[in-house]
Amino acid sequence: MKEEIKFDELSKHLFWDIDKNSLNSQKNKKQIIQRVLEYGFVCDWKIIKDYYGVKDIAETATKIRSLDKKSAAFISTISGIRKEEFLCYTMRQLIPNHWDF
Q1: Helix (H, G, I), strand (E, B), or coil: what is residue 95?
Q2: Residue 53: alpha-carbon gap to chain centroid
Q3: Are 68 and 92 in contact (CB under 8 A)?
Q4: DSSP-H helix ranges across 15-97
Q5: What's the whole-model pTM score?
């Protein structure tokens, strides 16, 4: 069994709103992967890549509805999974709403 991710090694801004002691590498996998893909640095990417592996990260990312376009394009490119297989690609709005100021 792999050793748990050391959340203190990840950038502090990724989990500013969560108690890091309550995070679990398996139970919170989708949330961890999404935050690192969208807001993490290269050092954060290396940590989750070493723990989960690119294949597992890509399979999890395909199930995230709100993953941003750049993150989806990145993981699609390095994993070889077509972007059409990502929920964030297939579930996005055709005509996005304007911001209500």
Answers
A1: coil
A2: 13
A3: no
A4: 29-39, 42-52, 54-61, 69-79, 87-90
A5: 0.83
